[in-house]
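cron nightly-structures :: item 1 of 1
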Amino acid sequence: IHTYKFHQAVADHVVLDLKYEARDVPQQLTSQQEVDRWFANATKNLNNYQKAAVRKAWANMEKLMSAGERKQRIIASIIEDFTLKPRLNNNRGTAMLVAASIYDACHYFRLFQNTSFAPYVGVITSFQPNHNAISREPANSDERYKFDTYTDHVLKGFPTTEKYEAEIKRRFIEEPANCKLLIVVSKLLTGFDAPSCTYIYLDNELRDHNLFQAICRTNRLDGEDKDYGHIVDFKELFGNVQEAIAVYSSDELDIEGASDAENNVELKERLKESRKKLGAAREALKYLCEPVAQPREMEQYLHYFCGIAGNPEALSETEALRVSFYKSVATFVRAFADISQELPEAGYTDQEIDELNWDAQFYAELRSAIKKHSGEELDIKPYEADMRHLLNTYIKADSAGQLGEIDNYSLVELIIETGIHDAIARKLNEKGSLSNNAVAEGIINNVRKTIIREQLTDPRFYEEMSTLLDDLIQQARNDAASYEEFLNKAESLIEKLGKKGADGPDVPRRLLGKREAIVLFNNLEAILESVRISADEVRYPTWEIENRVDIALEIDRAMREEAPAGWLGDSVREKQVLNALFPIMEGNREATLAIFEIIKNLPGYQ
């Protein structure tokens, strides 16, 4: 019989490797002297028997309170992980907490109910509340505590334990955002697979097979962002964990075909592995930035990753380079986050720690500047959730002040909202480190990005805006006079972009306030001209402005009253729209198809 060993499964990418972390939860008193002083004063008038009774009561209370305090610290640590750790902090990952007993599981569940994390916690044990049995139990017994926990807290809204467990397991597997943490004792530690499960917290002294089965709840494959299964140990089980892994990484029935090294896969020590990962990520990032021209200040980096603003193709030509940079920064920041609180323990000197912190700060600011400069603040979405949290938590102490209103605007929108000078100061160049030329190029890139993104919604209007942008580029100079002139023209252009041609002097009165009809009107002349020339026909009577207004309004009416719901992307319904447009466009197929292409890109008709 062939035995498939653990390290083979990892090498074959059938399961993930495991990362181990031991966390100490101290339970000693904060000040034993203060307690002794209080005790001596409180019992000074008591006899020895009475003092012994008080001491006994104190011992029981201390035991209970220290157990509760310890659990509170563990809960705080777990909740912090769901704020800080990748996967846990973006609703893709879940965790299991293994308690020592059903009583402890119930105690944990109750303590979680006092936190904001309560709606995301479930508990599954072998306990079944029995009203007949509980009637014979004293009020303060463990059995009464478990019964009250289930009936008063766990089973709210569920008629039976079975229905509750089925629903909680479903959420844990299918809806990780709705059941983030599952408290268990022994049930579900075998034969229960939830790929989203990324962390397991051990507060139970498991051994051998049970321990291995438990930790393997975390190492199922679940997308590229799940690198390891994580074991967080509150019981100092490292030796047991190593032993369990070794047992399932060796084959005592077949020892001739492999070396001892192959048959004993040591669990990766967290700090050593994290340091290696951080070093590799940092080296890759520096290698990527190596071609940047000297003196390698912000402006040189912006030119390298965004190109020269005067080149309309610069952003698209350098896009792959920027994507690689964003990914590399994400990898570096994640690696830094893993170890940032324990750099001395990982063997870094004070100088190395300073250099790491400087790099983290620099690349964070550089990433932000490049995204703003290129108008890509919302790109690379799979990486953004992780990046924003990690930057705020570990690197940028002043980030909290920048969140909120400003982050809801693109640079172009912010210029429209606040004016160009304020927008530059608050968003594009908040650190004050960019030259006038770099600021100008950043504005140009953001305007061009807006034009390219919106061009299909109104080709004629955005063609005019593109021409104005070309004129604007000529104003991008370093001297103060032309720079100020550039800013004035840029602000004027961006205001026009914001209005989208909706209230210009050339808009006929009958179209005012009708955004889509204005777009149709603006583009009808070019469409009809193209048809007239290609068909070599006499001049269309619709050439006149008022006739074009009539056509635009008629198309607008047809789209709002006759177009079926959900027509876009549905071939049958799109034909219905074309049939409605055909007579309005005087039976000309080319003109109908041309106006239809514009209509497809107008959000107001979708």
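cron nightly-structures :: done
The chain has a mean pLDDT of 72.
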